[in-house]
Design a protein that fits this description.
Length: about 220
Amino acid sequence: MKVGIFGGCFNPIHFGHVSLIQEIASDFSFDKILIIPNMNPYYKKHTPVSFQSVSNMIELAIPEGIPYEISSLESSPNMEHTTYETLTSLAKNQVGNEMYLIIGSDQFLELSNWNNSKEINKIAHVIVAVRGSHMVDIDDSNLLKNAYKEVKSDSFARCFVTDKNRELFFYNLKEKFDISSTAIQEMLSHGKIEEVKKFIHPMVLSFILEKGLYVK
């Protein structure tokens, strides 16, 4: 089974998340996208929301026809969750014989600072979703020069491999949304509902307003 692993806060999930999932699920022909909400993003300031609420918003936002599942591996708000530990757990549980970690280009630029970052590509292939606001200079990357060689390139992605045949894709998103969940939280806390409508699904917005989320 070919599985895409997509982690993040999704607090709340927005059109950027959904568009990325749609594009990559289609172009990489995944059997399943495993969405992993991180309920303790110790690396950044966030508004605490329950795992159940985040899961409900994801379910409201993802269109029919996309094969996905929500994982509770990082659902504890009292534990520090690392990508390496999560991937190791998924591998042990044989989630798929091919796992592809999906990260944004902003995350790729910080990848060397992650715990056990050099071990990640031993467990999973990596897809870097490139957004205009976080461009990666592929041809000037020391990481690529030292560990990868380019094997193919086309209109939507460049693919590199390690000597262990682990793939690293730089996928140029067709739809680029320059928005973050943090920015949406800020808009909602100031009552900017009309502005928020441009970035999240109407049913997600209704859920947020009904539950009184992100209100100071």
